[in-house]
Design a protein that fits this description.
With about 475 residues, the chain is of the alpha+beta class. It contains 15 helices and 19 strands. A 3-stranded antiparallel sheet has the order 6-7-8. The chain has a two-stranded antiparallel sheet with strand order 1-19.
Length: about 475
Amino acid sequence: MNLPVLSLACALLVAGAGCGDVQESNRHPWLQMSWDPFLDTLQRKTIQFFLETTSTATGLTPDRYPTPSASSVAAIGFGLTMYPIAAERGIITREDAVRRTETTLRFLFNLPQHDGRSGAGGYRGFFYHFLDIRDGTRTWNSELSTIDTGLLLAGVLFCQSYFDRPDPAEQSVRAIADSLYRRVDWTWTLTKSGGVAMAWRPEEGLASEGWHGYNEAMILYLLALGSPTHPVPERCWDFWTSTYVWGMYQGEEFVSFGPLFGHQYSHCWIDFRGIQDNYLRRRGIDYFENSRRATFSHRVYAIENPGHWRGYTDSIWGLTACDGPGDTAIDVDGRARRFMAYSARGASLDWVSDDGTIAPTAAGGSVAFAPEICTPALKAMRTWNGGFLWKEYGFPDAFNPSFVTPSTGPAGWIDRDYLGIDQGPIAIMIENLRSGLVWNVMKRNPYIIRGLKRAGFSGGWLDGK
């Protein structure tokens, strides 16, 4: 089947588009559109989060800011991806981008790797989920995280392919990136069921449960399949897809996963337009279209608003993993309502978790899939309640108009923090929408190509590679 391929020159938002219902004829991303300069401003603000909060001495990006926190390994991966984007946009020089990248990679590579309970940054090439912001060793008793290491490595390999010049600094980036990837022992993580284990702890060993689909771990399996040193068997992708849930939700048929981040993270680095594995080849779509449908379903869910939460509209929508007001209950419109702190929120065929908390990254991270609904949503959030959500680094992580207390005021709860793993997809997907930079660079990476082919992907840009 020949799938329609989105032209990045055409996949841009109509300037000044309204926030009303999108007609069916406008739901096709290959329609002629024009760039909205608001996205430039949002991207620049979001990139500044990484440039100004990441340590220039170690390259460690904080999990959150301004609340003091450890470094998140996944946030480092998003941060590494920011530096070439910032250089391309003229925010920093290429030399500064190289310097920041080499500092980060060298620091990570030199961290101790052993199976002790403390004093190490990781084990067998993997990294702990949270690292001490000062010395890079395990903190918060966190797990050795396969998915967070995967998101880090996606940023590492992007930098390896982007910095392709012959000068010594860029050669160093490529060499260290290669070493970081090659030393990861993916086969060590295989579970009895045939999947990659979610985590390992020195106190408990490997988790018995393996990553199974569909969620953010698609990039993890592709990296494990593409390894030149410790590749997992090709059957791991069959295990991954064997647990997919396919069905109709909000008028769309697609592989189900409730929080939008699961439809976004892998797409930050890999262009899935026009390439298919065996599972989606039978369904007649690709993973890009799958994420596009999921994005539209979230907007429809907010319009219907079955939970009767305050503030949901056709332009204020988006459920994903994010901060929340807290694990508590308050009276809202005459009834007791329960709320959550940081949690995965989502709406899908087989799972709904919604406490009225909206995360701007839900629309921001999907902007390349559906710019015609995501950019109006982001613009509406910018002006929401007189601009309460528009701050130094773009949008704070989340807000909840239903959580109104004497301390919040009538607007409800607004997060004070920005989260690295939620900031990253906004800036990356704006760039992929505008230029395809990250996607196109990753198409040159032999490890990504090998991983996709071993997973059974073919078609589109992958043919002939």
